[in-house]
């Protein structure tokens, strides 16, 4: 137990010091397993065998293929120009709506992040596209920057989500069911964000220009939407109907995206090399993170730290809602100082025994965790998405971006409360699938 608590404390310190998540977690976990096994009388060979068995549980062929294919899909879609088409179409359709460009940015960022699987990449790319365009149209900097920052977080819930993939592999939960479970919460979050823009513009007409009509063709804008619509239909429709696993859906989407990019002349040898190189680096990073997290889970299981926390909560007689409220507060506080992947790796091994002790549905709990990590992306003082937006719009102060994000943050917390009180919002669609 002493080794377990000491390892947990060291990991928190390393993450606060901004040591890469995979490196910090892997080092603490490996050394912790060796120390704990030695304390129990095992040697290095037995410890190594135990860690290898842990890795085989998560890094099997299907899991590795799924991670690689979804990351490859995101890079292909970006270079093929598919990721930004939802924003382009929404901007045309909403041009007559006050604050229409901000709403289009939220929708476009949600679509981009869903296809790419990365909220941070979305904030970086769309920040360069949407924010300067809105500022040129006399949008208030707070609205322009915060709309992109919060829109990018939608990719954590809308499939395919890298966070759902990691949570599913670590908790041995169906990634396909997690994908489908995130759809309604993602749409609810989107509706809340759009509602904030409408209310903000109605309250203060000066934050957005008067509605205009650029005479852009809505028909042409809608026709340009077919590639992302096809990709999302394959992923969501294929998984929901049961004819495709997440890995199969990702493979088919990669093929479709490659064909579309080549036929439209957007992909060439140089682009494809960049796609392969970036996908390889990202895949190795994510797989290393998953491997480190799994060994860390084994370390906590071996030392009994997670079970002690679960037993303490049960013996104290805490109601389930109280435990969830405490967990939510812990996640939000950690989100202020640690990046989302670090939070996920650090907390899932500890929270899983709690979910088992209280009989919580892992699909529902996974949605709550990802929603909390989504909120962490815009929570001050770290707010990774906010800092990314600040880095690509250097002339706008961080205080102004956070001031805009604060309005959206209140709605996000309200959506979180709805998800906690009404689990059916997350579980209805997965319940229609055969588990």
From TrEMBL:
TM stretches of this protein: 59-79, 143-170, 176-202, 223-243, 249-269, 281-300, 312-334, 341-358, 364-388, 409-429
Subcellular location: Cell inner membrane
One GO term describing the cellular component: plasma membrane
Topology relative to the membrane: Multi-pass membrane protein
Gene Ontology molecular-function annotations: transmembrane transporter activity
InterPro entries: DctM, TRAP_DctM
Coiled-coil zones: none
Keywords: Cell inner membrane, Cell membrane, Membrane, Transmembrane, Transmembrane helix, Transport
Every TRAP C4-dicarboxylate transport system permease DctM subunit domain range: 8-424
Role noted for this protein: Part of the tripartite ATP-independent periplasmic (TRAP) transport system.
Family to which this protein belongs: Belongs to the TRAP transporter large permease family.
Subunit structure: The complex comprises the extracytoplasmic solute receptor protein and the two transmembrane proteins.
Protein name: TRAP transporter large permease protein
Organism: Paracoccus homiensis
Organism ancestry: Bacteria, Pseudomonadati, Pseudomonadota, Alphaproteobacteria, Rhodobacterales
């Amino acid at each position: 137990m002493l080794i377990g608590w000491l390892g947990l404390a060291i990991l928190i310190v390393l993450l606060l010091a901004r040591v890469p998540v995979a490196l910090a977690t892997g080092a603490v976990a490996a050394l912790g397993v060796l120390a704990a096994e030695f304390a129990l009388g095992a040697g290095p060979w037995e410890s190594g065998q135990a860690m290898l068995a842990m890795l085989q549980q998560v890094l099997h062929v299907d899991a590795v293929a799924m991670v690689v294919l979804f990351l490859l899909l995101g890079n292909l879609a970006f270079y093929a120009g598919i990721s930004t088409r939802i924003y382009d179409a929404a901007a045309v359709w909403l041009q007559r709506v006050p604050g229409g460009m901000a709403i289009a940015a939220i929708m476009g960022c949600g679509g981009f992040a869903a296809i790419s699987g990365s909220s941070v990449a979305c904030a970086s790319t769309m920040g360069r596209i949407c924010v300067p365009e809105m500022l040129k149209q006399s949008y208030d900097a707070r609205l322009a920057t915060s709309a992109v920052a919060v829109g990018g977080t939608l990719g954590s819930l809308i499939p395919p989500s890298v966070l759902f993939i990691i949570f599913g592999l670590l908790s041995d939960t169906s990634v396909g069911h997690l994908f489908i479970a995130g759809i309604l919460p993602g749409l609810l979050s989107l509706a809340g964000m759009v509602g904030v823009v409408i209310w903000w513009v109605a309250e203060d007409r000066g934050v957005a220009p008067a509605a205009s009509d650029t005479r852009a063709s809505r028909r042409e804008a809608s026709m340009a939407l077919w590639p992302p619509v096809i990709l999302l239909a394959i992923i969501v429709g294929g998984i929901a109907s049961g004819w495709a696993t997440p890995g199969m859906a990702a493979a088919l989407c990669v093929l479709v995206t490659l064909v579309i990019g080549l036929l439209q002349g957007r992909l060439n040898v140089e682009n494809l090399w960049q796609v392969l190189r970036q996908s390889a680096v990202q895949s190795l990073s994510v797989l290393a993170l998953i491997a480190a997290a799994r060994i860390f889970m084994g370390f906590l299981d071996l030392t009994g730290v997670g079970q002690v926390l679960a037993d303490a909560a049960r013996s104290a007689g805490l109601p389930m809602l109280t435990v969830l409220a405490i967990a939510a507060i812990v996640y939000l506080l950690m989100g202020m100082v640690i990046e989302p992947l670090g939070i996920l790796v650090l907390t899932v091994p500890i929270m899983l025994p709690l979910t088992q002790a209280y009989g919580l549905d892992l699909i529902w709990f996974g949605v709550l965790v990802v929603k909390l990590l989504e909120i962490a992306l815009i929570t001050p003082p770290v707010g990774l998405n906010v800092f990314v937006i600040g880095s690509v719009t250097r002339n706008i102060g961080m205080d102004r971006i956070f001031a805009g994000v604060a309005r959206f943050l209140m709605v996000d917390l309200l959506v979180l409360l709805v998800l906690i009180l009404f689990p059916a919002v997350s579980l209805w669609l997965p319940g229609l699938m055969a588990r």
